[in-house]
Design the sequence.
């Protein structure tokens, strides 16, 4: 059984070399330092964390926003996320939405492993709900908790299988149709437009002109790609910008509302509280209390 010391070393971003002595049953890489099923409590979040090891995060139920290195990944059930040592990331649960995930933290010790050849710069490795890969990840977590050597060896083998299957899935995606590639490029234009013009009165017709696609097609494909509709994504961007302004400036709530595209502070306030569970002023007060 992996002890509490090892779990702490995995969760606090320890370097790989510091964990080897705590892993007597892992005689070769990959060394798995944490594998568990996590039910996020209401309001739970992690902000701007970095890890010293590799992480696979699989969404079992619900959804959450997962910014990695400045890019937002709105994750839904079945999404498999990957990030590397030293990459800043956050996990932001959504008001009224559950979030259950499998977290796998691992490293390859002193051995060089060509992770870049598998995933390039990718973070979202695909959606695997109902697949054999999902079953393997669940079994991996179960085996990790067993104290015997054979279980640990099976867990390591399943991790390697999961990495290989995810890489094969990405390769298949990269060789997809030209139409799919063009559509994704257009959706990225829509995403970029929203991020650049969030303070304006963004309308679906603006997005139609940018993408050259119909409104309904944009809504369906954007949600499939990013987990949110364009207008839901616009709201998410505005919330993040409002939080940034509250942290970094001395603007009033009404001034922040105006900066993120709301002419009426009351409408902004209702939206912010509905989506986050707290008012912006309460958010600021909590930060001040925390700092003290």
Sequence:
């Amino acid at each position: 059984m992996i002890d509490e010391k090892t779990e702490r070393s995995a969760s606090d971003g320890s370097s790989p070399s510091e964990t080897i002595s705590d892993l007597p049953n892992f005689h070769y890489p990959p060394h798995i330092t944490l594998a568990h099923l996590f039910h996020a409590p209401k309001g739970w979040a992690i902000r701007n964390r970095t890890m010293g090891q590799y992480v696979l995060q699989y969404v079992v139920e619900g959804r959450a926003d997962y910014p990695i290195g400045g890019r937002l990944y709105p994750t839904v059930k079945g999404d498999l996320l990957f990030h590397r040592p030293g990459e800043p990331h956050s996990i932001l649960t959504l008001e009224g939405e559950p979030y259950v995930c499998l977290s796998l933290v691992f490293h390859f010790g002193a051995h060089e492993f060509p992770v870049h050849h598998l995933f390039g710069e990718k973070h979202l490795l695909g959606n695997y709900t109902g697949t054999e890969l999902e079953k393997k990840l669940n079994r991996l977590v179960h085996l990790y908790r067993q104290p015997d050597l054979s279980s640990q060896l099976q867990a390591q083998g399943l991790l390697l299988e999961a990495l290989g299957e995810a890489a094969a899935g990405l390769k298949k995606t990269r060789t997809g149709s030209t139409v799919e590639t063009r559509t994704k490029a257009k959706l990225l234009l829509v995403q970029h437009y929203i991020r650049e013009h969030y303070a304006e009165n963004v309308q679906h017709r603006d997005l139609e002109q940018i993408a050259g696609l119909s409104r309904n097609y944009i809504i369906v494909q954007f949600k499939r790609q990013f987990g949110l509709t364009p207008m839901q994504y616009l709201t998410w961007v505005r919330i993040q910008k409002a939080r940034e302004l509250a942290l970094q400036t001395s603007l009033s709530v009404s001034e922040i509302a105006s900066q993120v595209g709301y002419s009426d502070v009351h409408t902004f306030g209702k939206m912010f509280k509905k989506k986050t569970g707290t008012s912006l002023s309460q958010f600021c007060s909590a930060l001040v209390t925390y700092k003290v």
